[in-house]
Q: What sequence folds into this?
């Protein structure tokens, strides 16, 4: 009888979510700590310091593009439209209201997200090359409107941001790191969550996914809004980094191509891949831009062709192959960190933009 009167109290404790294993979280926090302290302990010039901060932004933008192009399989050539919208909204808020720069970034990101939903909701009904062609039209139409919208964008004269009102290039290193950390965490969550499984099903066969109960329209709209919002925030970051912006730069088709190349060269549908692609993109751009301003995209395109021919999974697939040759094997039932998409097979069917379904 006494045993019946004894009740064990509830166990009180904090448990990590299933999509964030303790080991992964420790590695993530450790990497952030190292990158945060790097400029404080390692001497580096202003140019290298600023370039690393800009690379963080491009890595975040490539990962955001990858949510749509890699996880859903919808290759977009129009993300420069959201990048430009975010940049010009952030710049206009800084020039007209005097609000803190981060408020302009957030407002630019939200505006870009709404704009992405405006054109994306109808066009996401298209699949494969038809969607890609539609995004080209969206990007070019947005660029033309922005070029002739002098009261908002300054037209061909562009806009100059007020010096001293926002962060310096030196401080943008850490803001870029914060942005990258948030995007990496969101990418990991998408890859491991129920939404990620739904996106994988949509990528494989949208009609079969709908028959299985996946709300393809909702999931695709959600991913596009998230992607466009982050791209818009990156546009605001870029505006403050350059301190001068014009529509021909922010809305250029070359910029949209750059986002695609970062994802495909690194490995679409992965987390590590677009980040590696962004690093290669910035390095190639900086090495060639001063002397051969028109050649860097051609060199990057050649690299893309070589990767598609010899390593369709991109740089992340190459690293995985090298790791396996060295004897590394992922734990049973666990996909490696650079595995494609929400599951390890996500990118095996679509090595490049031409393979989107």
A:
């Amino acid at each position: 009888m006494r045993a019946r009167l004894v009740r064990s109290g509830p166990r009180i404790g904090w448990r990590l979510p299933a999509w964030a294993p303790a080991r992964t979280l420790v590695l993530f926090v450790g990497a952030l700590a190292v990158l945060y302290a790097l400029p404080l302990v390692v001497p580096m010039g202003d140019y290298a310091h600023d370039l690393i901060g800009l690379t963080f932004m491009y890595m975040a933008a490539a990962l955001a593009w990858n949510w749509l192009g890699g996880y859903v399989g919808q290759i977009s050539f129009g993300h420069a439209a959201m990048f430009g919208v975010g940049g010009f909204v952030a710049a206009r808020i800084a020039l007209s209201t005097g609000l803190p720069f981060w408020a302009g970034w957030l407002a630019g990101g939200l505006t870009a997200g709404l704009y992405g939903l405006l054109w994306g909701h109808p066009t996401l009904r298209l699949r494969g090359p038809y969607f890609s062609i539609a995004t080209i039209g969206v990007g070019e139409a947005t660029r033309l409107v922005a070029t002739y919208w002098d009261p908002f964008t300054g037209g061909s004269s562009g806009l100059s941001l007020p010096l001293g009102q926002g962060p310096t290039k030196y401080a943008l290193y850490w803001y870029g790191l914060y942005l990258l950390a948030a995007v990496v965490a969101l990418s990991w969550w998408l890859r491991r969550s129920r939404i990620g499984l739904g996106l994988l099903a949509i990528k494989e066969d949208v009609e079969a996914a709908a028959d299985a109960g996946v709300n393809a329209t909702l999931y695709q709209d959600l991913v596009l809004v998230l992607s466009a919002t982050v791209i818009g925030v990156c546009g605001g970051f870029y505006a403050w980094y350059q301190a001068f912006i014009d529509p021909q730069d922010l809305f250029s088709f070359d910029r949209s191509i750059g986002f695609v190349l970062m994802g495909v060269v690194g490995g679409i549908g992965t987390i590590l891949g677009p980040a590696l692609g962004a690093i290669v993109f910035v390095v190639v751009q900086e090495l060639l831009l001063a002397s051969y301003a028109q050649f860097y995209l051609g060199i990057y395109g050649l690299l893309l062709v070589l990767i598609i021919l010899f390593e369709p999974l991109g740089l992340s697939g190459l690293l995985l192959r090298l790791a396996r040759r060295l004897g590394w094997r992922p734990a049973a039932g666990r996909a490696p960190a650079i595995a494609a998409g929400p599951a390890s097979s996500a990118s095996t069917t679509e090595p490049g933009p031409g393979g989107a379904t």
The first strand starts at residue 159 and ends at 160. Residues 44-252 form one domain. Residues 46-72 form the longest helix (27 residues). Residues 5-9, 335-357 have pLDDT under 50 and may be disordered.
